[in-house]
Amino acid sequence: MAGEKSIVDQTCRKCGICLEVCPDRIFVQDQKGAIVLDAGKTHLCNKCGHCMAVCPTQSIKIAGLAYDQDFFALPAPQTEAEAFYNVLATRRSTRVFQNKPVPNDLLEKITEAVAMAPMGFPPHKTEITVVQNRAVLDEALKYTAKSYQEMLQGMENPLIRSIIRLSVNREIFNTMKNQVMPIMKMSLPRMEKSGEDVILRGAPAMLVFHADKAAENHTHDALIGLTYGLLAAHALGLGATAIGLVPPVIQRSKILRNLFQIPEENEVLAAMVVGYPKYQFQRGIRRALRKVTWI
């Protein structure tokens, strides 16, 4: 992404919001207070559009994204159908949270929404562990960071990398190699140096989705439930994001399984962090499916 991302200095307010909402901290503030790009991290940009969506003055430019074509004004609901699409259009993955706990009743409403999700065959197979103790999350964070540090070292070893490639499917290996490892290589040193939570994003609560690994349709059911949970959190005025880094580490770690009270026969499938968003996005981002075939 080098040379494909820029900031319009004439209109930039130097508010610094983009520094915080960027998942990979590509923006930095120089000694004069100006917002600039960290040249060593621009290759991590995946054009998620968060920075452009939150910028109040439209001062960020990314090659391939245009404010007039790829973004839209956030709608105001009028009918029930419009209200539903408004929830979809205004939801964004939240990775910057207020230092404020989420009340139990709101977390319960999220779990109630998950229970409304369709399932392959009743009854529900999905179980949820709700974690609202930040000390527990911090303990889990240490093990998760250590796990990914070890994985980084393994992926740099050709022999171990070959073993990993043979032990997982192509989707998982490509995700690890092309997305997770480059981000962790940049983020873990920052976390060790500054204490910044680059995995759970400092969220005050997390929901872990798991189910009996022998249960019918349990994987699809949990992922659909996760989607309902993300939408419910947004509808309740909260922010949330799915955390794909966490489930595989909990799944492999006896310590974390005990910490999160995961039954021995259960498989950890998904996780989402939730809290009050620190910032509100100014516009929505247009998305397109790779392909739609009409027959």
From TrEMBL:
GO terms for molecular function: iron-sulfur cluster binding; metal ion binding; oxidoreductase activity. Residues 4-32, 33-65 form the 4Fe-4S ferredoxin-type domain. It comes from Methylomusa anaerophila. PANTHER family: NAD(P)H NITROREDUCTASE YDGI-RELATED, NITROREDUCTASE. Coiled coil: none annotated. Keywords: Flavoprotein, FMN, Iron, Iron-sulfur, Metal-binding, Oxidoreductase. This is Nitroreductase family protein. InterPro entries: 4Fe4S_Fe-S-bd, 4Fe4S_Fe_S_CS, Nitroreductase, Nitroreductase-like. Pfam families: Fer4_9, Nitroreductase. It comes from the Bacteria.
